Structures are given as structure tokens and as C-alpha cells.
């Protein structure tokens, strides 16, 4: 079981990237007038780095845990649901990720890096990350709650399995297991 958990942890960013890829709206330049809040997350052009490579940077350089990726997705989903007409697109997914990962790390971990570090790994400026963080928090109305059931459902959805085993649940709720 431990070997499965180690392999799963190492590949979580790839599973998460594949999962996000299925959620992307293919028309990145389409905006409805009511989703101005998400327009600040749009890049001028689609980044050259894949979602998987982007997330791998966080896993390698900042030691981002799989639990952070899952909670970050929950916050992105919450933002999109609270923003009528919004969409996850190739133009905004990278900036939404760096922002939600930064917020998740700060909210749920005792140790987290400086915004400047997340910005470097996310290939944006520190000033831009500060602005995006502020807009993201306003967009989710500062609601950082992540219910256990939602978290487990997201883990199962990302990994492509219907139910997460209890040992796997433990691995994601106690970071010291590995």
C-alpha cells in the first residue's frame, strides 16, 4: 500500500493536469461581459508550458503536496461557480493555478513560501501574483473552507477512481507519512 501511495504522490501533478485539461474550454478568447473578474487571470497568449510541466515545477521546486493540488482545484471550482459566465481556458488556467496554489498553501500549511517564490515558479511577477491573489479571494468571498467529503470526491475524480481507500485518505491528510 505504501508503494502505491508513493507512486500516486509522484504522479499526482500529472493526474491533476490531465484532469484540468478535460475541463478547459477550447475557445480562450471568448468572454462574456459578466465575467470580468476572471479576465485579470488571462495571459496575453497561451503559455508555452503544458499544465503538467507547470504543476511539476511546483512539485519539484516548492515541494507542493498532492493535497494542495486537490484543495487548489476546489478553490478554482468555487471561483468559477461564483462567477457567472466564467470558464477555465488555456489563457487563464496557469494563473488561476499559481494563485490558488499560493492561497491554499497559506491557508492550510504551517510552512509556506513567500509570494515571490510562488511567482518565480509560476513565471509571473510578485506584484501580479499579489493582485491575482486579492482578486481571487474577493471572487470566492474569502471562503477557504474545504469540506472533507468534497476533498475526497475531488481526489477520486482526479485519480479516476470511484472511491478513495482509507489508507490513501490518511496519506493526504497527514503530510508526514512520506
Walkthrough of the structure:
The chain is mainly alpha-helical. Helices cover 62% and strands 0% of the residues. The chain has 9 helices and no strands. α4 (66-81) packs across α5 and α5 (93-108) runs antiparallel to α6 (115-121). The radius of gyration is 16 Å and the shape is globular. Mean pLDDT is 80; it is low at 1-10, 162-169 and 171-178.
Overall pLDDT level:
80
Count all strands and give the number: 0
| Major beta-sheet overview | none
Rg value = 16 Å
What is the tally of helical segments? 9
Key terms:
single chain, 178 residues, mainly alpha, 0% strand
Secondary-structure map:
Layout (H helix, E strand, L loop, with lengths): L1 H22 L12 H4 L11 H11 L4 H16 L11 H16 L6 H7 L4 H14 L8 H12 L6 H8 L5
Helix pairs in contact: 1-3, 4-5, 4-8, 5-6, 5-7, 6-7
Summary?
This protein is an all-alpha fold and 178 residues long.
Amino acid at each position: 500500500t505504501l508503494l502505491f501511495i508513493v507512486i500516486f504522490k509522484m504522479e499526482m501533478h500529472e493526474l491533476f493536469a490531465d484532469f484540468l485539461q478535460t475541463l478547459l474550454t477550447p475557445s480562450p478568447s471568448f468572454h462574456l461581459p459578466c465575467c470580468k473578474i476572471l479576465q485579470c487571470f488571462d495571459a496575453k497568449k497561451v503559455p508555452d508550458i503544458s499544465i503538467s510541466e507547470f504543476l511539476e515545477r511546483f512539485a519539484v521546486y516548492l515541494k507542493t503536496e498532492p493535497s494542495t493540488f486537490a484543495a487548489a482545484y476546489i478553490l478554482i471550482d468555487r471561483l468559477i461557480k461564483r462567477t457567472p459566465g466564467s470558464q477555465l481556458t488555456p489563457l487563464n488556467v496557469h494563473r488561476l493555478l499559481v494563485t490558488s496554489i499560493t492561497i491554499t498553501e497559506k491557508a492550510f500549511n504551517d510552512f509556506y513560501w513567500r509570494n515571490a517564490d510562488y511567482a518565480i515558479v509560476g513565471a509571473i511577477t510578485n506584484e501580479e501574483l499579489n493582485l491575482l491573489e486579492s482578486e481571487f479571494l474577493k471572487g470566492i468571498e474569502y471562503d477557504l473552507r474545504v469540506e472533507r467529503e468534497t476533498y475526497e470526491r475531488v481526489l477520486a475524480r482526479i485519480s479516476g477512481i470511484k472511491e478513495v481507500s482509507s489508507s490513501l485518505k490518511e496519506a493526504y491528510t497527514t503530510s508526514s507519512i512520506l
